[in-house]
Amino acid sequence: MSAGPEEIARAVARLRAGGLVAFPTETVYGLGADALNAEAVGRVFAVKGRPGRNPLIVHVSGPAMARRVVGTWPEEAEAMARAFWPGPVTLVLPKGTGLPGAVTAGGATVGVRCPRHHVTLALLEAFGGPLVGPSANRSGGVSPTTAAHVREAFSEAEVEVLDGGPCEVGIESTVVSLAGGEVEVLRPGVVGAEEIGRVVGRPVRVRACGEDESGRVLESPGMLGSHYAPRTRAEMVSREGIAGRVARELGRVVVLTHTGVEVGPGHVRVEMPVEAVGYASRLYSSLREADNAGAGLIVVERPEGVGALWDAIRDRLVRATAARG
Ligand code: AMP
Ligand code: MG
């Protein structure tokens, strides 16, 4: 059951006191705190075990609230907000002076978005101010797409959870920078560069997975930094390579397959939807299921699908299967 007015009122009280409230969004569950309270923001980093150099996204009820945390709100931001909000697009803009530096990891820019979920829109309205909201998981782990996932990671004392049902999209928002000279996708999501380009009326650059801020390609996959990762060792393998990879492994293997690959006796198969929307919405819960199957290795069949959402899915899979740094 979705959280109602009573739970929302309790959550607001907790946020006002500098506490943490996990909230549902259409992408993944967010770990909420008062974005204008430096101490509360510090608590988010501490509870997640998040490195201080990784900035938090600020959640707002709309453009008016966004203007309170950004330094500039250009025409392109207004056009993007009109086209995509509430929705899974985070805009990176110059930071406003009132926002604690901890939110942006000391950086000069801030990421803001308006989530498309009635519970969290009601929470933002009732609280009346911006909330930081990184994914509500321990740093580096698999993002939560249900209230139960959040409860597995944090105690009641640490985090109050507003239940809003399973997340519809299932992977994190597209992060788009409007802070530099070009419009640049920093993290792929459901909304792709082409769609964004049509709204801003100019070409959009996509920073490749494994590229640093200056556009240099990182040399080794280990430098990608593992993220969205299960505890079990995980590899992404082409459909043709799966049988051989499973045969080479001494222990039990869990295979995530969206094309019905057979895995043989003693191993486990997790069936994934064959189309992108279903695949994305199931991705993180399936990785958790695979992680809990008691296997020594997770093999993910490499999706070959074309389009923005498949690109975003592959981005998460590359990071979930990257060597731990
Ligand atoms: P998460 O904490 O899992 O919701 O992910 C938030 C991600 O948003 C960060 O890891 C960054 O990739 C991105 N992000 C947030 N704020 C900024 C910013 N100011 N500049 C660039 N990327 C940002
Ligand atoms: Mg995260």
CATH architecture of the largest domain: Alpha-Beta Complex
Backbone structural class: alpha/beta
- How many helices? 10
Number of strand segments: 14
Please, could you describe this protein's structure?
- The protein has 325 residues and is an alpha/beta fold.
- The chain has two domains: 202 residues, DHBP synthase, CATH 3.90.870; 87 residues, Rossmann fold.
- The protein is 30% helix and 17% strand.
- The protein is built from ten helices and 14 strands.
- The strands form two sheets. Strands 7-1-2-6-3-5-4-8-9-10 form a ten-stranded mixed beta sheet, sandwiched between helices. Strands 11-14-12-13 form a four-stranded parallel beta sheet, sandwiched between helices.
- The longest helix is centred in the last third of the chain and has 16 residues.
- The protein starts with a helix and ends in a 5-residue tail after the last helix.
- The model has no long low-confidence stretch (mean pLDDT 94).
- The site of magnesium ion has 3 residues, from loops.
In short:
The protein is of the alpha/beta class. The chain has ten helices and 14 strands. The mean pLDDT is 94.
